[in-house]
Every structure is written in C-alpha cells, then in structure tokens.
Amino acid sequence: MPDYPTIEACIGNTPLVRLQRLPGETSNTLLVKLEGNNPAGSVKDRPAISMIAQAEARGDIQPGDTLIEATSGNTGIALAMAAAIRGYPLTLIMPSHMSDERKLSMSAYGATLVEVSQEEGMEGARDLAMAMQARGEGRVLDQFANPDNPRAHLTGTGPEIWQQTDGTITHFVSSMGTTGTIMGTSAYLKQQNPDIQIVGLQPEDGSSIPGIRRWPEAYLPAIYDAARVDRVLDISQPESERVMRRMAAEEGIFCGVSSGGAVAGALRLSAELENAVIVAIICDRGDRYLSTGVFAGS
C-alpha cells in the first residue's frame, strides 16, 4: 500500500506569488506568501504543530493532558486542528469580540472555548490561561514565550522564502502579533544574507487589527527581540481594510485584515525603493472575517 501522508504533512510549503496590479509601475517585485493555504487556514498552523510535537518529544505533555492557550483567533484554530490530529483535549481563551467564524472553527475541531470581555482583551486572556494552569486545569503552551513558535519559521517559512526567491529577496514584511513569524523567519533570512531588511508592522494607536498588536511593556512577547527587526511601520485599521479589499478585487487574493496591513506596508516600501524583491506574509484567508462586515466597506 502507498505511504499516504496525513493532514499534518500538508502544513507548510505554501505558494509565493507575484502581485500584478497593486504595485503599479515599478522596478520592484512584490511577492506574497499564501499562508491561508495551510490546512487550518493560517500561518499559525506552523507553530501550532511545532509547539505540540516538540512538547511531546521533550516529555512535557503526555497523551490525555489538557492543553490551554490564549488566542485572538488564528493560533486557536490552528491549535484546535493540531490537538485533534495528535489527540489532546484543548481549552482556548479569547476576547469575546473576535469573529464568529473563528469561534465556530475552534469548536468544530473539538476545542472548548472560554471567552473574556473585549475590555479584558488578550492581556486578560493570557492572565486567565496562566491562572487555569496554576489551578491544575491543564498545560499552557504559551505561544508568546515558547521558542517552538519562532522555530517553526526558522526551519520552515524562512527556508521556503529563500528557496522560492532563489535568494534574491531584499525585504521581508510581516505583521507582528505574537511575533513568532517575524522572529523565526528573520533569523533564517539574516543567516543567508545579513543585508535583507526585516520590516514589522504594528497598529497605529487607536486601531484594532486582528492579529496585529502594540503590546504594553508588561505583556511584550518573551520571544520578541527588537534587534532582529530593522524597521517598524505603524499601520491604520482603515488602510489595512482598504488594501485587504483591493487584494480580493484586483489581485484575486482573498485575505484577512492583518494581511492587508502587510501588503500596505510592502507598498509603502516599494514607493521608496528600486529593483527590490519584497516578500509579505499573507497570514490567513478572508472568509473568517465575513461576519464582521469589513468587506462591505469602501
């Protein structure tokens, strides 16, 4: 019988495609990596399976253990898939204002969902996860401090981008939430060519963009190293949503709000550069944002 792969083998090796219309007349090449093509629909599939597999390998978790994680959505969906693949009960804690599609997807994979208020936000979700662990209710994987998060991008996303661009990449653009994507990918790319510029995106004050955060100092992810990011751009919510809608209507790429922000950042860079090869991460697909109404804007 053929050695058929499992769904876990389908994580990674996502396409890298060229933008055709949004860049306009330019000597630059703008490329986007379609992480929505992962089985659970986002870039978070990579660290989700990495955190569980590596914890198993170290003996930190055992079959039957309950896993706990605070999430704004994509990591929760990815972990729900990964826990289902590997057979672990999972409790996810998220702010109540996240989209219905995200909540329903987590439940579909069999996860238990606990909500905190919008005011408590991700900080409150993280605090509750740690309190539950302290009460013996399960094991927190902690994407914000877990080195297996960026390691997934050091061994996967970074090498893929390097190979897919034949080593010609000059700029890498990524939204920053837990910062695992930008930390791991930048580590690999800088090893190959220290001149590659790493550009991170954070929301402007007052903007609420799913998946992108401007963390209070006390909650800054422990995996984040500011020295590994050459430049940080502030992105507004209206700009992210506008570019997100243009990606669907003009490029045929149906993506989420943080991905619109990443492409907006790439377009800003392109206006400053010549003969550059700019790669931006498309974190997820747009279908998990339909209920929020963001695609109905102008």
UniProtKB/TrEMBL annotation:
One annotated GO molecular function: cysteine synthase activity
EC id: 2.5.1.47
Pathway(s) the chain acts in: Amino-acid biosynthesis; L-cysteine biosynthesis; L-cysteine from L-serine: step 2/2
Pfam families: PALP
Known catalytic reactions: O-acetyl-L-serine + hydrogen sulfide = L-cysteine + acetate
UniProt domain Tryptophan synthase beta chain-like PALP: residue ranges: 9-284
Bilayer-spanning residue ranges: none
Needed co-factor(s): pyridoxal 5'-phosphate
Main EC class the enzyme belongs to: transferase
Modified positions (N6-(pyridoxal phosphate)lysine) in chain numbering: K44
Keywords: Amino-acid biosynthesis, Cysteine biosynthesis, Pyridoxal phosphate, Transferase
BP term (GO), one: cysteine biosynthetic process from serine
Annotated binding of pyridoxal 5'-phosphate, by residue: N74, G177, T178, T179, G180, T181, S258
PANTHER family reported in the protein's UniProt record: CYSTATHIONINE BETA-SYNTHASE
UniProt family annotation: Belongs to the cysteine synthase/cystathionine beta-synthase family.
Name of the protein in its database record: Cysteine synthase
Protein's organism: Halioglobus japonicus
